[in-house]
Amino acid sequence: MTVRSTMRLLFLTAAAVMSAPWWLGAGHVVVIDAVQPEAEKSIPDKVRLFIPYKEYSQEDNQRILDMYKYLRVADVSDGMDVVGLQDVGLVDPEIHALWKDTEKFSHRAVGIAVTARYVPTNKREAKMDQELISRWYSTLTSEAFMDVLVPGSMLVIDAMEDGESRSIGSTNIRAWQKLGMVGLVTSGGLGDTDEIIYHKVPTYFRRLARGIRPGRNELESVNRPVTIGGVLVRPGDVVVADGDGVVVVPRERAEEVAKAGLTFLDNISRERYIRETGKNPWVK
Predict the structure, then answer these.
(1) Contact in structure between 3 and 29 (CB atoms under 8 Å)
(2) What is the DSSP track for 36-88?
(3) Tens-digit pLDDT string for the chain (284 aa)
(4) Is residue 44 part of a domain?
(5) 7-12 long-range contacts, CB within 8 A, separation 24+
(6) Structural domains of the chain, count
(7) Is residue 234 part of a domain?
(8) Distances from the Cα of 252 to the Cαs of 58, 212, 256, 264, in angstroms?
(9) pTM surpassing 0.70?
(10) Would you say residue 276 lies in a domain?
(11) Domain span holding position 110
């Protein structure tokens, strides 16, 4: 949720419950003045943004996702080679699947990128009591990207340098999933892994982390270009993740990459395609 400037926070956010200490349980009443900083509405003359934001309709997003329904990371990588994008979009394998399902392959995920970036904070608090923790969650280290998650979103969080910050846990990742997130890729910290695996949320991450976000990081931006494992990810790009890792397809090349990648389907994925579509383009 987004907490507006005049609202008084009565209950902890999902993020706060997820990451707060044991004594700060769900439903615990906390009354504080929660001031959510407004996002910048205008860009000062001395600031230059050279990668523009482009918005795509949900209809077009779904059309593209349908084209990638059967494609594996390997197929997409091969399709990228065919169209001249060799070694583009291949995320460092250090970012890997938290869990794998070798029967139904439910760990696989294909989605349209929604991006967020957390950065290390340069602020410190003398004492992190429950009121201060809640205030951090609703202001400096909020989850404002929840406002733009839609069905088919792949949440991509750039938090490479935020140290021991546990930006993702079992409660907030489930809340994001309920808004339509099909999977998550992060270069930052992840906690509550047992519960995330139990709930089978497709998750690709770099490292474990145990510290709460308050006092450790701040949300820098939502839906701006980020880098994950050495790869540029822009909102609207196509992100494919499975046991082989993660690949990111530039949106303007997504259709031709999908068509090229389809020819490389093999074994189980090809059988599933033929069974579900009634088509067999591999028969000459």
Answers:
(1) no
(2) -PPPP-S--TT----S------HHHHHHHHHHTTT--HHHHHHHHHHTT-TTS
(3) 333 333 333 334 444 444 444 334 444 333 334 445 677 778 898 999 999 999 999 999 999 999 999 999 999 999 999 999 999 999 999 999 999 999 999 999 999 999 999 999 999 998 999 999 999 999 999 999 999 999 999 999 999 988 889 999 999 999 999 999 999 999 999 999 999 999 999 999 999 999 999 999 999 999 999 999 999 999 999 999 999 999 999 999 999 999 999 999 988 888 889 898 888 888 87
(4) no
(5) 7/34, 7/36, 8/32, 8/33, 8/34, 9/34, 9/134, 9/138, 12/134, 12/137
(6) 1
(7) yes
(8) 16, 37, 9, 21
(9) yes
(10) no
(11) 54-265
Query: Distance from CA of residue 195 to its chain's centroid?
Result: 18
Could you tell me if residue 275 is inside a domain? no
Structure confidence at residue 37 (pLDDT): 62
192-205: string of b/e by CB count within 10 Å (b at 16+)?
A: bbeebeeeebbbbb
The CATH number that applies at residue 189 is: 3.50.30.40
Question: DSSP secondary-structure letter at 251?
Answer: G
Among candidates 220, 214, 157, 219, which has minimal Cα distance to 189?
157
Q: Where are the alpha helices (DSSP H) in 124-213?
A: 130-138, 170-178, 193-199
DSSP string, 191-222: --HHHHHHHT--EEESEE--B-STTTEEEEEE
DSSP code for 95:
S
Sign (positive or negative) of CA dihedral 89, 183, 157, 242: negative
In terms of Cα–Cα distance, which of 115, 90, 99 is closest to 188? Answer: 115
Query: How far apart, in whole angstroms, are the C-alpha atoms of residue 260 and residue 258?
Result: 5
